[in-house]
């Protein structure tokens, strides 16, 4: 989950409802996020080895963070 100034990873079991996983704040993990002023989005790469973040603005910068 991406917020304006941070990113959070939530473990989700295969059959677990997403709302239930997001409600369990004890298992979430704060993740490094891009340095953009207002973070807007986050997505894992196809191989799950990294993720990308991007912020608002007319020329936002795409930031890649290694997941390993």
Q: What secondary-structure arrangement, pairings included, does this model have?
A:
Layout: E1 7-9, H1 18-23, E2 29-31, E3 39-44, E4 50-55, E5 63-66
How is this structure best summarized?
With 68 residues, the protein is mainly beta. It has one helix at 18-23; strands spanning 7-9, 29-31, 39-44, 50-55, 63-66.
Account of the protein in words:
With 68 residues, the chain is mainly beta. It has one domain (7-66). It contains one helix and five strands. The strands form two sheets. Strands 3-4-5 form a three-stranded antiparallel β-sheet, with no helix packed on it. Strands 1-2 form a two-stranded antiparallel sheet. The longest helix is centred in the N-terminal third of the chain and has 6 residues, at 18-23. The radius of gyration is 13 Å and the shape is globular. The two termini are 18 Å apart.
């Amino acid at each position: 989950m991406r917020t304006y100034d941070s990113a959070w990873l939530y473990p989700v079991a295969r059959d677990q409802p997403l709302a239930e996983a997001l409600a369990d704040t004890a298992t979430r993990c704060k993740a490094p996020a891009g340095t953009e002023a207002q973070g807007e989005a986050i997505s894992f790469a196809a191989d799950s080895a990294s993720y990308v973040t991007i912020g608002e603005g007319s020329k936002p910068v795409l930031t890649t963070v290694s997941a390993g």
